[in-house]
Amino acid sequence: MPKTANTNAEISAPHTTTEPTVVVRDLRQRYGDFEAVKGVSFEIRPGELFALLGTNGAGKTTTIETLEGFRAPSAGTVRVFGQDPLGQPVGVRERTNAVLQGSGLMEDLSVDETLALARDLAADPREPDEILRLIGLADKRGLRVRQLSGGQKRRLDLGLALLTRPEVLYLDEPTTGMDPEARHETWRIITDLKREGVAVLLTTHYLEEAERLADRLAIMHRGEVHVEGTLGEVLAGWGDRVSFLLPSDVRTDDLPELEGAEVEVQTREQRLWATYTVREGDVADRAHHAVAALMAWAGERGGTLQHLQVRGASLEDVFLRVADGAANLVGE
Amino acid sequence: MTTTKGTDRRPGPGPLRQALRLGRTEFTLFVRYKTALMYLIMPLILLMPVANMESVPVLGEYTTTDLALVGTIGAIALFLGLGHPSNVFTARREALVLKRLRVSGVPQTAIFGGVFLVVLLFTLLIAALIVGGSMALGGSMPVDPVMLVFSVVLGCSAMTLLGLLVTPFVSNAESAQMLSMVPMMALLFLSGSFIPLEAMPDTLRQVALLLPVAPTVEMAQAAYVGYDVFGGFEGAERVGFLGLWAGALPNIGVMLVWIVGLALLVRRYFVWDPRRP
Ligand SMILES: Nc1ncnc2c1ncn2[C@@H]1O[C@H](COP(=O)(O)OP(=O)(O)OP(=O)(O)O)[C@@H](O)[C@H]1O
Ligand SMILES: [Mg+2]
Questions:
Q1: Is residue B76 situated within a structural domain?
Q2: CA distance B199 to A252
Q3: Cα–Cα distance measured from residue A258 to residue B123, given in angstroms and rounded to the nearest whole number
Q4: What is the pLDDT of residue B2?
Q5: Could you tell me which chain A residue has the CA closest to the CA of B277?
């Protein structure tokens, strides 16, 4: 787990490439009486993408705003390149950039003027033509920003964030409003950035996006991180599912008990389906053991498991569980 | 695509060049918003009372009309400086434009500098029109053009900062416009360009000269006529270059105190993020 690696990095020489560029520790953020972020910790290394997922109002944007240096933490610390980003000191601001959740473009400038302004303000910019090609807006360069479509504006937001060659990039729902092709293109761009060593913090409500891009991820709900780790680690904890059509002569109570698994019966298309969720045991072969046991059970009864499906948990399962579970806790 | 690492990054363009560049964009937008037109028409309204005034000689060949005419320049800085930045910076904050600039690495001073430059440029432009117009009608050249320009710079700085200071109190451009009217009207009446400082009771005149517009109006008038008018028109004498600047020192001092004080307040209270606690 990254936790141990991180203590090493703090002691090791500064040129170590694995030293985290973004460090957030026990961050708390209050708005008056309301605590929007309640003790969040994570870190991001060069070339790594950390996805901060979570329910609406979970505190993702607030966390990013703190990293961007717009507000001081109520408690805890944030560090970017080892510095406090509050007020955007020069050593931080020239090396970071962001796509904001709400765009922030000057509507009365043209696309060309927008990029030219950004280029002239930056220390070591990419050329606007390169950006236009990357974001696929070369044929719209003469238009005023207010004349662009929602998705086109979003692409321009991304283009502006890339233009300054940031080493740390905060992407707050960057693909919202993009069509599937533009989204794939954006994923390709982000993958390239990672390869170049950019540390990326991404928030998104498209879980597929996180599955494809994230090296590590966290799921937040009401200010707290509920799940954290690599995609594999996160999914492993949430189990494999084995489901099949419940034979008409089997009652729910007759289903066999499997070690380390829970069974649930649901109605779909007016038929009953049994689903075993296997959470315990070795990740590599626990599904195999469950299926083997169920096949043996079916064999004894002289039948087959119809419509047998085995699948790992998806990020969506985990997400819904987090959103749901916590909601239930509050309801109790 | 390539990313540069922190250590071998090129040095940035620096806040001054960034401010000039932003000033250029501010200018484009100023013209595009059609605000420019409004601010160009405004002096005409200000000049109406001047035109109706009885013109009497006060200082040598200079008449009350000449002095009133030059005095309007201070009011232009007041209108533009208080009116324009408060309005557009509120709108831009709400549209996240300011936040976008900040996250892309542009420092605060450059962003404020950009809007200051457009205020300064337009005020100078209108000042040139006023002086040029007066010269076309048989008036003379300003005696000390440097002091005239300097008074405009001081006035625009203070007024731009005051305009920026309006923005934390409001949440949209309309209320920014409304709220900026309050100091605008108060300062206009005590500026000496609407009601001549000469016509004010002595204590009121003293107070006015401690506020951030009247000192610049007085400086502009002194610069235009070359008389030491800093103690009032009565008994003012024609003085040389150094005498004029020496007379202007208290006014410059008052303005600098305002500028530094307002700058500190802006630094402390300016809000970049529409979603504040
Ligand atoms: N200025 C404020 N005053 C009071 N509450 C605020 C303020 N700003 C944010 N909040 C609250 O803080 C919480 C976290 O907001 P935040 O924008 O960080 O959520 P988020 O995780 O980004 O959500 P989303 O996915 O919807 O963008 C929300 O409940 C929000 O209402
Ligand atoms: Mg958000």
A1: yes
A2: 99
A3: 83
A4: 53
A5: A31
Residue from the list B21, B98, B107 with its beta carbon closest to the beta carbon of A120: B21
The backbone torsions φ and ψ at residue A143, rounded to the nearest 5 degrees and listed phi first, read -75, 150
B4 domain residue, yes or no: no
Reported as type and span, the H/E element at residue B126 is: helix B108-136
Residue A236 Cα, ligand 2 centroid: separation in angstroms?
A: 27
Per the structure, the count of domains in chain B is 1
Pocket of ligand 1 (CB under 6 A): A 31, 34, 36, 54, 56-62, 101; B 275-277
DSSP A216-263: EEEEEETTEEEEEE-HHHHHHTT-EEEEEEPPTT--GGGSPP-TTEEE
d(CA A282, CA A289) in angstroms, rounded, equals 10
What three-state secondary structure class fits A38?
Answer: strand
The two structure tokens encoding residue A120: 């002239």
Residues from chain B that touch A103, judged by Cβ atoms under 8 A, are: 96, 100
**Residue B255 covered by a domain:** yes
DSSP state letter for B148: H
Cβ-contact A164, B105 below 8 angstroms = yes
Confidence of residue A30 (pLDDT cuts 50, 70, 90): very high
Q: Determine the structural domain holding residue B81 and report its residue range.
A: 15-51+58-269
Do residues A204 and A154 make contact, with C-beta atoms less than 8 angstroms apart?
no
**Separation of alpha carbons A268 and A253, rounded Å:** 19
CA distances from B42 to B38, B71, B224 (A): 6, 14, 22
pLDDT of residue B277: 60
Give pLDDT < 70 ranges for chain B: 1-8, 277
Bridge-based pairing of strands A22-31 and A75-80 is: antiparallel
pLDDT at A7: 39
How high is the pLDDT of residue A3? Answer: 39
CA dist B44 and B130 (Å) reads 10
Residues A308, B27: Cα–Cα separation, whole Å: 68
What span, in angstroms and rounded, lies between the C-alpha atoms of A252 and B149? 91
- Residue B105: which of A122, A134, A192 has the nearest Cβ? A122
Residue whose C-alpha is closest to residue A49's, from A215, A230, A233: A215
CB B96 to CB A104 under 8 A?
A: yes
Q: How far apart are the first and last CA of chain A?
A: 34
Say what the pTM is. Answer: 0.87
Would you tell me how many other CB atoms lie within 10 Å of the CB of residue A122? 23
**HSE-up (13 A, CA, CB side) for residue B220:** 32
pLDDT at A250 over 90: no
Please indicate, yes or no, if residue B187 is contained in any of the structural domains: yes
Q: Which of B85, B76, B75, B82 is nearest to B126 (CA)?
A: B76
As a whole number of angstroms, the distance between CA B141 and CA B132 comes to 8
Dig out the tokens for A286 from the structure: 């626990």
Shortest-distance atom of ligand 1 to CA A64: 18
Alpha-carbon distance of B230 to B249, in angstroms, equals 10
Q: Which is nearest to A105 in space by CA: A72, A135, A69, A75? A: A135
Q: What is the pLDDT of residues A102-128, one digit of tens each?
A: 989 999 999 999 999 999 999 999 999
Q: Using the beta-carbon criterion (under 8 Å), do B96 and A102 form an inter-chain contact?
A: yes
